[in-house]
Amino acid sequence: MKKNASSLFFSLVLAGGAVQAETVFVTLEKDNALAVVDPVEGKLIKTVPIGQRPRGIAISPDNKFLYIATSDDNVIKIIDAETLKEVGKLPSGDDPETFALNPEGNRIYVSNEDDSMVTAIDIARKKAVKQIKVGVEPEGITVSPDNHWLISTSETTNMVHWIDTKTNTIVENTLVDPRPRAAGFTADSQQLWVTSEMAGTLMILDAKTKQIVKTVKFEISGVTADKIQPVGVVIDKDRARAYVALGPANRVAVINAKTFEVERYLLVGQRVWNLAFSPDQKRLYTTNGISNDISIIDLESQTVTKSVGVGNYPWGVAVKP
Amino acid sequence: MTDQPGANLYLSKGRRTKQPGVRLLHYWRAMWGIISRELWRFVTQRERFISALVRPLVWLFVFAAGFRAALGLAITPPYETYILYEVYITPGLIGMIQLFNGMQSSLSMVYDREMGSMRILMVCPLPRWFLLLSKLLAGTGVSILQVYVFLAIAWLYDIHAPWQGYLWILPTLMLSGLMLGALGLLLSSFIKQLENFAGVMNFVIFPMFFMSTALYPLWKMKESSELLSRLAQYNPFSQAVELIRFALYGQFNQHAFIYTLAAFLIFMTAAIIGYNPSKGMMTRKGGG
Prior knowledge:
- The complex is a heterodimer of chains A (321) and B (288).
- By secondary structure, chain A is mainly β.
- Chain A has 1 helix and 28 strands.
- Chain A is globular and about 50 Å long.
C-alpha cells in the first residue's frame, strides 16, 4: 500500500512537472515540408511533406487547424494541427504567399501579388466571397484585433490600404516608405506598424488619422545600410515592446513600443523574415531563410538562447499552445 | 624588493624546526611568502596591471570590432546560437592574459636570477618542486585577478555569459594558469639573460597565440589550411582556451581538460628538472 501510495505520488509529481510545451510549426519553402519543433527542448521533432513551396502559415483561434499557403499548388491547405493531415483546401488564387486570418477565424484574406488583388475567403464554405482591387504587388496583410480594418500593403505602389471589413472596400490609402513589406496592429487596434524593406524603416501609423506618427530608422554598427531590410513585425500584448526582423542584417530589432526607441539588436540566423510569439509571450521565434534554422529568443532576458536547424528555406512560423 | 627580508625570515625560522606540524606551517609560510610577494608586486606595479588589461581590451575593442561580421556563420559548441566575434574571442583573450602572465612570471624568474634573489629562494630547505609550484600558484592567482577584471569590463561591453559560467571558469583558470605558468617556468630555466626574452616572444608567445582557437575556430582555419588547423588542434594553448570557453557556458570539455592537465604535468616535470642544479639547464647555462 505504501509502495502504491509513493508510486502514485511520484506519478503525480511527474505529471505535474512535465509542462506541456507549445509546438512551433515552420514552413520549409524548398523542402516542400512543414517542420515541427519543440521550442523548450530546442529540438526538431519531425518534418512532414505538406505541398509545393509552402510559405504563409497561420493557426485557427481554436488552435485546431493550420492554414498553409502552398504557393506552387495555388491553394491554401487546411491541416489538422494534431494529426498534420490535410483536411481541406481553400481557393486562394495563383501563387499565394501571405494571408491573414480574421479574429473570429472564419475568414481568410489573401494577397494575390500578380493580380494586385486581395481575395476574401469564407473558410466554412471554402469559397472566395470577394476580390478587392489594391495597389501593385500586395504583400503585407493583417486584420485589426477589433476586426474593423483589413490592411494590405502594396510593394510597388508604396501604399497602405485601409479596407473596411464590413464593406470590403478601401476607405483610405496612406503613402509610406518604399516596399512596405509587413504590417501588424497593436493589441488595442490603435496603431498599425508597417515595415519598409527598401528604406530600412519602420513606420507607426495612427488608426484614427491613418497618418504616420513616427518613422524609426535602423542602424547597426558593422552592418551596411543596404543589408538592413525590415520584414516581419510583431508587438506584444501590453504594447511594451515590438520586434522587427531585419532580413539580411541577421538581426531582430527590439523597440520600446512607447518611446519608439530601438533598445537593442539581437543576432539571429541569416535572412530573418518572419516572427511569432509563444502563447505566453515569453519567447519569440524567428525563421532564418538562408541559414536554414529558427532562432529562439527569451524575451525576459532579451537574449537569443538557441538556433535550431529545421530544413531548407524556413519561411513562415505559427505556434500552437 | 621590500618583502624579501620577510620571506627570508620565514625560511630561516623553518630551518630550526623539525616537528611535522611546524614543518607544515613552514611550508605554508613559504608558500604564502612567495604568493604575497607576487601579489604585492602586482598591486604596486600599476603599469603592469594596466598593461595586462590593456592588451586584451585593445584586441576586444579594436581588432574584434573590425571582424564583427566575419563570424556568425556556423554554430559550434558550446554556443547554441549565432554569436558576435567579440563573444567568440573573449575566452581566447582570457587565455592571452594567462599566457602573457605565465611568460611575465618566466621573465621575472630570469630577472630574479640576474639579481640574485633566486638564490635566496632556492637555498630554502624545502623541496624545489614545492617552491616552484608556489611560484606558479602565485602567478596563476595574479592572472585570475586580471581575468575577472577583464570579464567585468567585457560585461559592460555587452559580452555576457550565464552567471554560473563565471564560477565554473575559476577551476579551469587555475589549471590553464598553472599549465601556462609551468611553460613559462620551463622556458625561464633555459633563458640565461633578460635580453633573450625577445626570442620567447617571437618563438613561443606569438605562434602559440596565433596558431590556436583563440582568434578563429578550427573549422574556419580548416577552410584555409588543413595543416594550420592541425597545429592549432595540438597546441596546448588551444586546449586551455577551449576548456575556458566551455566552462564559461557551464559546460565541461573533458578532452580539453585531460590535454591541459597532461601538458601541465609535462611542463612542470621538465621545469623541476630544469631547475635542478645538478641535472638541469641552470648548471649548463651558468644561471642562479
